[in-house]
Amino acid sequence: MSSLADLIDTRKDTAITSATSGLVVKAQDFLQGTSKIIRSFSLLGKLGLAVILFFVILAVFAPYVSVHPYNLSSGAPLMPPGGEHFLGTDDLGIDIWAQLCRGAKISLIVGLGTALLAGLGGGLIGIVSGYVGGILDKFLMRLIDIMLVIPDFPVMILLAAFLGPRLINIILVLALFSWVSSARIARSQILMLKEKTYIKSAELYGAGTWYLMRKHFLPEIFPLIAVQMIRLTGRAIISEAGLSFLGLGDPTSKSWGLTIHYATSFRGIYFTEFWKWWLLYPWLFLTLMVTSLAFVSRELEQFADPRVKK
Amino acid sequence: MPKKRSLTVIISLIVLLTFSCGLLYGCKSDEAKETSKTEGKKTADVIKLAGGDWGYPTPYGLYPRGPGSRKMRLVYDSLVSTDADGKIVPKLATEWKESDDGLVYTLKLRSKVKWHDDKPFTSDDVIFSYEYQKKYLPVSGGCPDAVKQVEAVNEQTIKIQIEEPDVDFLSNLSSWMMIPKHIWENVTDPNNFTTDAAVGTGPYKLTDYSKEHGTYRFVANPDFWGSKPRVKEIKFVPAGEAVLAFEQGEIDRNSVTPDILSRYENNPEYRIMSYETSWAYRLYFNMAKRPELAEKSFRQAIAYAVNRQELVDKIARGNAVPGSPGVLHPKNEYYNSKAPQYSHDTKKAKELLNSLGYKDADTDGILKNSQGERLSFQLVCDDGSARLAEVIKQHLAEAGIEVVIKSVDMKTRDARFKDGDYELCINGSGNGEDLSELTNISGKGRATSTTAKTMGYNNPEVDKLYTAQQKEKDPKKRKELMGKLQQIVAEEVPKLTIYYTKSLAVHRPAVYDGWSEDTYHSDSRSNFVDD
What we know:
Number of helices of chain B: 14
Number of strands of chain B: 17
CATH class of chain A: Mainly Alpha
Helix content of chain B: 25-40%
Number of strands of chain A: 0
Structural class of chain A: mainly alpha
Distance between the termini of chain A: 31 Å
Mean pLDDT of chain B: 88
Number of helices of chain A: 14
Oligomer: heterodimer
Strand content of chain A: under 5%
CATH superfamily of chain A: MetI-like
Largest sheet of chain A: none
């Protein structure tokens, strides 16, 4: 976002070339479009967006938002919220707020990383499969069928345990099981699009695959894939938390799931009052984040999917 | 349409929230309404305890940790055993005599003892147990290595010859289980012999075992040679959340943490028993794998850097005794209070490391050797000690040593520990002093303990002192030798004892009140039967 602001600033100060002005106009269009979309959101959608924004800020400015380190003891163990540690401390005396800020970063990295990888990868596979057709399409569709039948979470557990608990592995494993839906959506759209007369005529005039993809296919299916990606983000965050909760996450990552894992492994935590901060806050953060993502993706659906339109 | 849907979402969220809160709190109000004034019951029909898979309860099928051995001991007997004070007590042997040179023991076997399948127990079975367990080593324990020959004098008397005198010989016999000849004779793969194999002479018969569910069912043996078992049936059942399972009566005894003790205090329905144990977490140094660790002052630096009191406060929630570098528990009769203690001193630790040539030239907090390599170690621990490892990592980081934690499940950790596949390792074990694992003398052969060779530690003086104290019959002189041994061990810290746990157990006296004061293990045989 800051680079866009820079661009606008530059326009004010110096003489500009037409190329940059084109970019700026595009950026302005984009901003205007985005704000229009946001304005059309329902209250819940706006709230969801605000919560997501809050977490993004938390993640980016984690070291500044929390005074205490996220990986070192900074107080007495299991201090209740209030005072210096305003969300309390865990059994080792590590500040919960600092851990949650760090966790926001991990969750976003995992969520966005998976969504980008799975959404774009899956979308591309879908386009190719739909447009090329034939044997390749048959092969890819059967592959997708297989992926759909495989229960993903058990296999994820297996793979996470096998590959070792590193953040990049978690992202890869999650992406491996998430591309299917984007691919199917993309393919079905392409199958419909390629029979449209304007595509047929473009083809007649000699438009190549790449040209068609760039000019017609991608713009048409991007909104659908974008909604799918936001959904995937939520799913990936939950799955990462699930894997961490089971003790298969990256033990150094301090993700929300890991905080929950340590809290629930504390013997008899539900019979003490410690869960009121050690377990409740990471759970609350996780729930808020995922619910907000769901709200936003639902709002966006209205623009992408004509069936949901008012 | 969307407005309605969002409303539904919000309402369902609220309902879910209140429901989950209700679940968490709800259990509190249901309990503790009835407070029976009945005196504790000394017998019971069924006792249920938290399960878990600890292997098939034969000397060959069990998992070599306490819970596995204790379940096996419900079924099998040794010739003699030791009581809580270390006194030798009769089991399948009723009398024993030692020859003057201490090399031959004559044991008289108990008469009219029957195996669970009604066949009589005779000296033949003892000899078979010796020969078979020599051929196939049991997973833990077994006949002491010192035994040279076992022969039958008659059907009720046996003679054991040993290599050299050993004061602990009779107490070592307590880990040698008698197995029936008619069952095992033709078994060539004892570790996988798990169909109707659990036939012993002990007070309980195994009637059910499920590896997958971690459940066991033991039923009292009506023909048991000792006194009548006080509990007719012992069941090990799955218990997810043990506190909840206990309060709902799904299990009859539970070990608890100090944090939840207030739920049971001043409530006549419950009785709390507390124990000081010699079960300890220890930090092991693999000197064979990392030569840096072979340097005595390096290990001393680590001993200074690790704040054992803080570990007691944080990890054990105060319910433990900080470890003594001399390995022995301060309440052990042979404890040497004068051995070095290494009170927490990060500065001293740093000085020691600096004097070894480790410097932090680029001031990133991690020390480097003369080649500029970072001082970094991998610490292997199990899930249960992951938090312990986390704090140790912080302590060592303060002294300039980087620790990378590798947390694995317990069985993997045990296997890696046994094979020496670690640099630093946290392992915990109970039962006695464990100084033998610092020697190269083959000891009791417990599968979860290590040897000096595996650790890359070698001090002939330790071996010599250990052997000498084993032979010493005079308790005063033995204490002196043990004192010397602890002095050396504490000075060299080949392993660092982190803390000795204390144990708190809660039960309902109205259900069963026969729990032993001597052992904190709820599955221990002494809770259910007087031999």
